[in-house]
Amino acid sequence: MTDEPLAFSPDQFSGRARIFALPNLVMFPHVMQALHIYETRYRAMLEEAIEDDRLIALAVLAPGWEQHYEGRPPLRSTACLCRVATHQRTPEGTYNVLLLGVRRLRLVRELPPKKLFRVVESEILDDELPAEEPPETAAGLQQELLAAFKRALPKMPDAYEQLDQLLGTQITLGMLADIVAYTIDLDLDWKLRLLAECNVLRRTRLLLEAIAGRPAPVPTRPFPPEFSAN
User: Fold this and answer.
1) What is the pTM of this model?
2) Closest alpha carbon to 183 in 216, 142, 155, 224
3) Residue 119 contacts by C-beta under 8 Å, 6 or more apart in sequence?
4) Which of 190, 195, 216, 225 is the most buried (most CB within 10 A)?
5) DSSP string of the chain?
6) What share of the chain has pLDDT > 70, as a percent?
């Protein structure tokens, strides 16, 4: 298993994103996702990333991808730029990797197919916190989101203490919203809306609306997920 540095700065990104496209996984910044990479094109993508900047983008396939999966089916317009945190090559030549989400991306233009994998010109999307909003707004939304998240985790007795420890690291509202959005059981459209929303206050309000409309409070991922403040 090879560990890689996790620190990320936007000037490390060329703007050309290597695309790992999946139909139903929405990745968010600040969390980690384990993947098993076995397709030839994605092995080539990972090997290039490891030798270069260790960056790939987790994108989501648009509806209708099923008949064109082996080709270049349309992609949703927002993706998550990820750094390869660890990678391990198996005896079969496949890879087990752990990815750290680092930034939102807007996918702008796909480049001609000169490689086995897809490459898209992309723009980093930074979090926005409206200057006209008083600090109390974000603080109040953070407490409201924390309370809503706790209500969504009734069957996880250790989660409250872990959540309080997590907040003790002084994470921002945007980071908390992304961690909750990744962890909690929401349908694909909700997660895509949350990924596409750069305004932190609007994202948090959307997330609160989504949590309030959920049926049974059953999270799909363990809490806390592995995450980083980078």
Assistant:
1) 0.86
2) 224
3) 16, 17, 18, 19, 110, 111
4) 195
5) -EE------GGG--SEEEEEEESS----TTBEEEEEE-SHHHHHHHHHHHHTT-EEEEEEBPTTGGGGTTS---B-SEEEEEEEEEEEE-TTS-EEEEEEEEEEEEEEEEPPS-SSSEEEEEEEE--B--TTS-HHHHHHHHHHHHHHHHHT-TT-TTHHHHHHHHHTT---HHHHHHHHHHHS---HHHHHHHHH--BHHHHHHHHHHHHHT-SS---SS-SSPPB---
6) 80
**What residue spans define the domains of the chain?**
2-125, 135-212
Average pLDDT, the chain: 86
CA diameter of the chain:
56
pLDDT attached to residue 215: 61
| Range with the poorest average pLDDT among 38-52, 62-76, 114-128, 166-180 | 62-76
Query: What is 2-125's CATH superfamily?
Result: LON domain-like (2.30.130.40)
**Which residues are bridge partners to 55 per DSSP?**
83
Residue 41, pLDDT score: 92
Strands 16-22 and 32-37 turn out to be: unpaired
Closest to 177 (Cα-Cα) out of 155, 218, 213, 148: 148
| Residue 196 dihedral angles phi and psi, to the nearest 5° | -80, -15
Two tokens at 53?
Answer: 């900047």
